[in-house]
Amino acid sequence: MVLYSAEGLSDRAQARNLLALAAKEAWGLSPLPEIALREGGKPFFPGYPGLHFNLSHSGDLALCALDGAPVGVDIQLVRQWRPSLPRRVCSPEELAWLEGQPEFWPAFTLLWTLKEARVKESGKGLTSSIRDIRVPLPEKGPVLFDGLRFRSWSGPGWAAAVCGRSEPPEDFLKKVLDIPTV
Fold first, then answer.
1. Radius of gyration of the chain (CA)
2. In 10 A of CB 140, how many CB atoms?
3. What sign has the CA pseudo-torsion 104, 161, 116, 146?
4. Its pTM surpasses 0.90
5. Contact at 8 Å (CB) between 150 and 114?
6. How far apart are CA 100 and CA 47, in angstroms?
7. How far is 89 from 161, CA to CA, in rounded Å?
8. Using one digit for the tens of pLDDT, what is the confidence trace for 10-60?
9. What's the mean pLDDT when you consider all of the chain?
10. Which residue of 4, 11, 61, 136 lies most exposed, with the fewest beta carbons within 10 A?
C-alpha cells in the first residue's frame, strides 16, 4: 500500500490529478486508465482488476491510496459538526472515548475518517447505520481490527485514515501538483 497526499487544491476535480500522478509513479500507468464505478459506487480501473485505489478530498487537501487489494481512505478538515451528530453516528464505546478526549471535534473528525475509510474499503456504500460501522478507536500506529488494517493521522485542522488488507505506511508521499490557476 502506498499513500499520496497533496494540498493547495482549489477545485474538487484536481484530486484526480493526484490519482493520475500516483498511478504513474507507482504503477507506470500513463495516461490515467478509464475509471468505472462498482455497484456500491466505488471507483475502479476496468482494465486493471488487480490494481485498487481510493481517493478522498476535503477543502484544499487530497489523499490517494494505491494497493493490490481493496483499500479505502478519507481525509477531512476539522470543523464543529452539528452537536447532535456524534450521538447519531457513534457507538456507546466511541462516545465514551470521545468524551475523554481533550479536543472533542478533532477527535470526532478522526473517528469519522476511520468509519469513512472502512465503508470505502468495502465498496458497498452505506448499507447500514453509521453507528454500526465498527472501527478501532484512534491510536498511534497501525491497528488490526476485524481482519482489516487501519491507520489514522491528524495535523493542524485535518484528520485522515486508511483501511485495507495491507500494512499501511507510516506516512504519505507528499506531492506538489502542477495546478493551473484559473
1. 16
2. 8
3. negative
4. yes
5. yes
6. 47
7. 17
8. 888 889 999 999 999 999 999 999 999 998 899 999 999 999 999 999 999
9. 94
10. 11
Residue type, 83: P
Residue (of 112, 111, 13, 106) closest to 55 by Cα position? 13
Q: Return the C-alpha cell found at 31.
A: 495516461
Number of residues that make up the chain: 182
In whole angstroms, what is the distance from residue 40 CA to residue 161 CA?
20
Q: How many helices (H) and strands (E) does the chain have?
A: 4, 10
Using DSSP, state whether 47 is helix, strand or coil: coil
**Residue whose C-alpha cell reads 472515548 in the numeric block:** 97
As a whole number of angstroms, the distance between CA 60 and CA 14 comes to 9
Read off the C-alpha cell for 15. Answer: 484530486
